[in-house]
Structure formats: structure tokens, C-alpha cells
Amino acid sequence: MNSLLNVILTTDFAFSVLRVTTPILFAALGALISNRAGIINIGMEGIMLVSALTGVIVSAYTHSAWVGLLGAVLSGTLIAGILAFFTLKFKTHIILGGVAINMFASGGTVFILYLLSGDKGSSTSLASKVLPSVQIPLLKDIPVLGPILSGHHILTYLSILSVLVVYYLLNRTPLGLRIRSVGENPHAAQSVGVSVIKIQYTALLLSGFFASLGGAYMSMGYLSLFTRDMVAGRGWIAIAAESMGRSTTVGTALTSLLFGAADALSNALQVLKIPAELIATLPYVATVIGLIIYAVSETRKKNKKLKTTATK
Amino acid sequence: MFKVKYFEAVRTAAVIVIALIIAFLIISLVSDQPVKTIGIFLLEPLSTKGHIGNVIEMAIPLMFTGLAVSLLFRANMFNLGAEGIFYFSGVVASVLAIHLSLGGWLHPLAAIAAGSIVGALLSAIPGILKAKWNANELVTSLMFNNILFGVGLYLLNYHLRDAKAFANVSFKFEKTAQLSKLFAGTRIHTGLIIVLVLIVLAHLFLYRTKWGYELRMTGANREFARYSGMKTAKVIILVHLIAGFIAGMGGSVEVLGMYSRFQWTSLPGYGLDGALVAMLAKNNPLSVIASALFLAYIRIGADLMARLSDVPSEMISIIQAVIILLISAEQFLKFWKNRMLLKEAKEA
Lengths: 312, 348
Fold this sequence. Notes:
The structure holds two protein chains of two kinds. Chain A is an all-alpha fold. Helix content of chain A is 75%, strand content 0%. Chain A has one domain. Chain A is built from 14 helices and no strands. Chain B has a domain at 58-296. The interface between A and B is large, with 46 and 44 residues.
């Protein structure tokens, strides 16, 4: 137990929590926006994978990490756009659409990787670029906080900033109000002149935008290359974080941090010989428990309401 | 002259044709010898007895999960848990295949029964959560996939792993546990008979029994089913139990039929493929046979193409995505259906 505390109570550990939270947080914010508009986007995993690969390819061919990032974001948003086109225009079931996106990405990225590099495993032969990390002046000199908060990847800071942006977007802007009203009651929103389809398109594109930032971070920050299936379930964890955070911005950000901590812990605990396979299931177990508690309390509330109206 | 009642069949055919055309386009772009490569993709699976065998071997697990998922979809349950259950039941069956010693056909029977029962029980959990508290079965089943994979991998690495083997594989199964082969020169195993029997039983269950009727009604409209006196909560739990049993049996049969050790270090993907099979089959048990064979055929075609030409087999996942997107697209070709309806109405 002591050695466990020795691992956790270090600035290195706190630093790594923020590091591993970044992709989860981006994708969870994306999931949040589309969910608030009433559409579950389970294609997160696929969108992240596609953008991670595109970032590597574009940065390798243009010799610029920033152009690579742009390519990653465009490709991820494009995939979300395709999903939106099929679900909103062709009425493909959104869940199956998401399954299709994930299936496409897991094989399609390997396919393209192989065509470009002749390797099915990783992009080592492509000279891809990495986005920079940032030392924050003044902050970096503060003891304890400095080593935890300074020196992170630029996208890590952007992810924290995105929490504020998404909060502001959803709660303080007309678009946010429309997104929420469409999610809560599309018919009512339609009747006051909101174009439900347009809002859902926007929400899905935004969810793809944020997910692709998470994907770009994977291959241009967290690692400096693309490897097959490198997203490794982070898209699913993000969806879990969103539903455990009960579709609020603050809740989503906090549960993402929790899952990030669990992830960092599973890396740290390998020192203690606790099986990583079991630790890796913790976020999912936590989500199931969170969902059960939520569902039970909702049902109780509903039944109570029914009873009180019945006795009246 | 086409009639409206054939619309769904024509639509499915149209989707398959479009998907194949996209496959040809990709091959033409990528390959140095596109015509030869397309030929391999389309015809090579039929070229030898071994290759035909490959198609049928691949179709067996797809039939199992396709059947499981189609029953869930029929009940309007968006549950993708067959993925994790298929894997975990495979682990369970492997434990018995390694550690038990039983004579003759009793050994595989015991291992498959254990895998199936564990599958049914695990599947019941999201079912109960849905039926009693309306917890979203999609999210819970997806979480369960990851949990079951983690626990299964832990069992493999810490309790079943053969340290003498060079890869991350379990100890060898007892010879008595392995399923026997049906045809010499192929690896087609008795699992084929099991799954075909299961499919016929599921068909009879769905269309000839009261429970099957209740299941279909609950799927069509849960509120209406409840008002007409059906215990829909019970139906939902029942369909989860049955689907989990079938998926679990599939995982057990697959490891005992195709392998001599347990060797999956990632989810094998048959559960999500099952969703594709179920959709192609329009959730009809008997049609599962044809759609699993079709999917297995293009997969084996892609594998052979990767081996014999310069196009990697991962191309097939692009084709599968196109099929899913178009098959489940309600509006696709709808205009044409409407025109036919109009015509028939005028003729009448």
C-alpha cells in the first residue's frame, strides 16, 4: 500500500493524469455536444483513428505539424459529416451508422497505411511531425504546481480550454440553446421554427471536430507516430465519461479526468504487479455502476410521481 | 414487373451490387493488375475444396452471432454485447477443455454447455437492467464487452498461459475436447450442424410459439404489447438470455472447432459482424445462413486476394461499412418504392 502511495503522490503521476486525459476529454466533449442534440455518436473511436492517421500522413508530406493538425481535423469532421448525411438524410440508424464508421476506420486506416508505407503495423517509415509542448512562464517555477501544470502538449492545454468553450457554447449562445432544445424535444423545437436537421448536422460536425483533435493528439503528441488501432478504446471511454457525467459539461470534464486517472493508475500499477488487464476494466465497471445508480433513481422518481398523481 | 413486396429483396441486392462496384473501383485504383485481382477476389474462394471449406468455416461463427443479434434486434434491443460474450465464453470453454478429462463426446458437450450458460447469464445483466430500470442496453452492453475482454485476457495471461509456448496462448486442449471434422480436406467441424439446428429452432420459436409472438410484438411496439397484456419485462430478459446463450455457444464452438489452444488476445470481432449479418438477413433466422455465407465469402475472397495480389485484405472493411450504411438507410431507394406503390394503386 505504501509503495502505491509513493507512486500516486508524485508530481510525475499528476502530470501523467493530464497527459492521458487529453484524448478522452476531447472525444467526451464531442460526445456531449451530439448527445445534447439527441444523437448518440458511437463513431468516436473511428473518427479518432482516421484523424490520427491523417495527421501523420499530412504532416509527413507537408513537413508541417500544423498543416497535419489541420488535415486531421478536416478528415475527422468529414467522417462525422458522412455519418450525419447517412443518418439525417438517408435515415440510417445512428447506432449502426456508428458501427459502420468504426468498422471502416479500423480496417481502412490499416489499408491506407499499408498503401503509403508498405507496413501494416505502424507509420515508422513516414517522417511525420509532432506538435510542440509548451512551458508556461511563471507557472513553471511554482513548486509542485509547476511540474504538474507546465510543460504539457499544446493540445492538452487546448482540451482544457475546450471545456470552457463547450460550456459557453451550450449554455450561453443561441446555437447552444437550439442544440439543447432539439435534444430535449425535437417536435417542440421544430414548432418554434428551429430546423432540427440543421442543428443536428451542426452538432455532429462539432462532435467530429472535437473527436479529431483527440485523434490528432494520439499520433502527434501522445505518441509521435501512427500504430494500428492506437485509439484502443478511448472513444468508448469518452462515451462512457459523457454518460456518467450525465450530459453536463462540468460532469463530463470531471469524469474524463477520473478515467484519465484510472488510465494513468493502470500504467503506474504495473510496478506493483497488479494485473493491468483487470485495472483496465475499472472505467467500464465504474460506468456500469454509475448507469445503474442513475437508472434506478430515475425509475424511482418516475414511480413516485405516478403514485402521487394516482392518489390525488 | 417488380411488386412492392419484393422491394426489400431488390433493395438488399442493390446495396450488394453497389458495394461490389465500390470494391472494384478500389481494386482498380490500387492494383497493378486490376482485372486479375478482381477475378481472384470474386472466384478464388470457389477454386479448391480447401477454399470452399474456408468460407464455411468462417460462416459458422458469423451464423452464431448473427442469429443472436437478430433475435435482439427483433425485440428492438440495440445490444451489441455478443462481441464480449463470444470472447468470454470461448475462455470458459477453454478452461474446461484444458482441465477436464471426460470420455468421447461428453467433453466438448460439457465445455460448450458451460460456455453457453455463462453467456446466457452474462447477457441477462444488461437485459434485467433494461427491463427493470430502463438502463440503456446499448451503453451497458458496450461496457460489458470491454469488461469481459479484460477479465478474459487476465484469465488467459495469468491462469491458462502456456509458458513453454512462444506466443501468448493457453495450454493445449485435451484431444477429447476438440470437435470432430465433417469433411476430409477441410476444417469444417460439427459446429456447422449445431448452428443449423439452432437456426431452425430459432425460426420455429419466433414464428410458431406464443413466446416468439410476444417477442416480435414487444419489438414492434413495447407500449402496445404491454397494453395488450404482455409482460414485456419478462420478454426482454428472455430474449437476452437466449441471445447470450447462442453467442456463448458460438464462442465455445469456435475455439473447440478451429483451434487446439485459446489464442485470442483481442476481441475477435464476430459480435459486431453479427450485427451486419443480422441486418443483411433482415433479422430473419433462416436468412442468417445466406447472409453469413455471403459475408464469409467476400472475406475469404479478400484474404486470398491479399495473399495472391498486391491489394491488402483490409479493403473489405470499407465494403462492409458501405453495406451497413446503405442497408440500414430507410430512405435509400424509397422514392422508387413510392413510385411502385402509386402504380399498383392505379392498376387496382
